Amino acid sequence: MPAYKLMYFDTKGRAEVIRLAFVVAGQSFEDKRFPMEEWQTVKPTMPQKQLPCLQVDGRLIPQSGAIMRYVAREFGLYGDNNDESTRVDVIIGTAEDFLKSAIAIHYEKDETKKAELKKDLEENKLPQFFSLLEDILKENDGGDGFCVGEKISLADILIYDITDQVGATAKLPAFPPKLGGLIDRVKNYPKIKEYLAKRGK
Fold first, then answer.
1. Model pTM?
2. Residue 94 belongs to what H/E stretch?
3. How far apart are CA 54 and CA 18, in angstroms?
């Protein structure tokens, strides 16, 4: 079995969905979190000079999207066939479209513009995103299980992680019923529930 080392900062950010995927898979991994001063020393040695980065034995994999897909494929969290894998990809793409709006707020320096972007996120972008996810969920056996097939996948983990992280900085609208049920199922999934209890806030 390969040795896995996930490298990032001491925050959730783009690494948390990968950590959660390892947790759901029951796969041990080294969770290396760089202090900023140590990162500046290590940065020149990293591919693309950015984090997160996953080391699999001696091989380094950059790019958060590539890493989360690699882990999901490796441990059966990417659907059981091409149709299901494509469905996971559709949800990832939907999430990435939404995240552009959330990330723009983080990098906006002008406080007035930041407030306007946050208001638009809370009043328009989040409800639209939740409505899209609700419709996608309903396509899979009425929306009372997981996003893809009959078991948890990267799609479910990603949706939970986004709502968790965005909810820490913005006011979330009420979840539509199917999406709310999914969020509860993911956070109460035994391995995730145990991880969250240890992680705390």
1. 0.95
2. helix 82-107
3. 10
